[in-house]
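Re-running the complex after MR caught last week's input typo. The corrected sequence lines follow. Everything else is unchanged.
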Amino acid sequence: MNVVVLVKYVPDPQGTPELDDAFLVVREGTEGALDPGDEYAVEAGLRLVETHGGEVTLLTMGPETASAALRKGLSMGAHAGVHVVDPALRGSDALATARVLAAAVRRRPFDLVLAGVESTDGSTGTVPMTVAQLLELPSATFARALSVEDGVLRIERPTDLGFDVVEAPLPALATVTGSAPEPRYPTLKGIMQAKQKPVERLALADLGLSAEALAPTQRVVGLTRAQERAAGEVIQAGEDTAKRIVDLLAEAKVL
Amino acid sequence: MDFELTEEQEEFRQAVREFARDEIAPRAKELDEQERFPLEIVRRMGELGLFGLPFPERYGGQGGDFVTFCLCLEEIASVDSSVAITLEAAVGLGANPIFRFGTEEQKRRWLEPMARGEILGAFALTEAGGGSDVRSMRTTARLEGGKWVVDGSKAFITNSGTPITAVCAVAAITGEGEISAILVPTDTPGFAVGPPYRKIGWRASDTREVTFSGCRVPEANLLGERGRGYAQFLETLDDGRIAIAALATGLARGCLEESVRYAREREAFGRPIGAYQALQFKMADIRVGVENARLAYLRAAWLKDRGRRYKTEAAIAKLYASEVAVAAARDAVQIHGGSGYIEESSVARFYRDAKVLEIGEGTSEIQRILIARDLGLPGTEL
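Corrected-run output:
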């Protein structure tokens, strides 16, 4: 089976991304990496082709530096990469990104598209489902486990009470959470082999898309710093201690 | 001149850095406290191919160079010296002699599973009566009916008693003024290890006394040439010294990172303590040490990778980096004040782990003799 994994190159996930005057993440001249959330999707894809045969193709849209995200995934064992890179794409919003990715996915036969749940920089969480919509694919979101049998994708989606089992006929799209199996680390051999693997570079024209059609339809108009987490409450031991704790747990909807 | 690592080296270093941060660092304190061999981490490192890093793919290795192996050791030692020395000893002392001097059959039998991290090998040279002073060696091996019979005991042998130790290369007297290396599988009757030493550092690393009581192994277990045992061990130690220098660099870097982090957070007299020059200068000095130690080990490893002579450069790197590490650990504890003296802090562990770097694989004194000998000075014969 052929699996396409959507991957994103994000500014250093350990740090805080810088924003420019238009509230766009500064991507030039910053250290970055394959989005850690996407690594779970890459791992899920690798496991599926290890069981069923086939190939994992990584697809990314981003500046030149984004090729590092492809290299990381190729080092983990993915077979090929596709890099959509075009100066006109700078500042693309989630819809434009999804259009580009969908157009790139559509170029080759595929069975399954995988993605992380959301990026660690933009965090809109809308791109995978929009891609599914544009490709008219069923989508199964928030998978902690995936399997394929007889042309049907089956995922486990954690819920408050347990988990749902969701099935969809292939071709389909699924998003993979951080509670899926831990991504593997690349070996030195994997890193050396990654250099030999094919990476296709595409510009907008190759996808039959124009910059005008991709003009942002949404923009960030303001930004407010997140509230500092308030100090916790210390409950002193006393007569109503147990009741107080039960009330708090009920308030937090744990009980 | 080119000071750039290759893209592969850089990416691999990053992968090992993440592995060390996510898989090793969170367990370092507990393993140290319990003096427990990090078997689970060793398994994971095996999957990552770290035990086969500098060996060719045909022997189950990763086909990397020695520079890459040293970079990997620096990363691991920056969070946990016990794990780093376990890897260093397994590759540098356990597998390397078999790779360099072993027969094809020995390589198939021992090196391949070692390279995959499935088994570990130990390297037994030092005895209670002497390490570098080889003339004091007492362990013997004599040929009897096509078998080597090994008798004696060895001291401070790393990885000798782990659950996955499968073989021990032992240096033994095989004739008048003749030392050879013999491979003794650990399931050989008469092979025994003592309890782990109670060390002040490297506590999660397995180090024991090993005794051989009439151990009989096939004649084909001779490793390398008969009578060249000591020369072979010395060559192995040259490699090991570069690796120890990388490990020392990692420890010093760990001290620096912990110190900088602490000095930015901790306040005294209304300012972060990092705002005081007294501490800034200490950290600047540690940085200088780290950078120079790295240059020294990279140069020695680079010479080795190019098949050039590196004996003196290995000694220089080992001597310098280990002394940098000890000084860095001392200063890091000082920067942390009281909280650096309690076991909860990483720098307390670094402080205990650092000292042995000036001792293992040739003491600082031995390194100075080697360097002096290279200067052509008289009286430097060992």
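None of the earlier attempt is carried over here. The first helix of chain A runs from residue 36 to 52. The interface with chain B takes residues 71-72, 75, 184-189, 191-192, 195 of chain A (CB under 8 Å).
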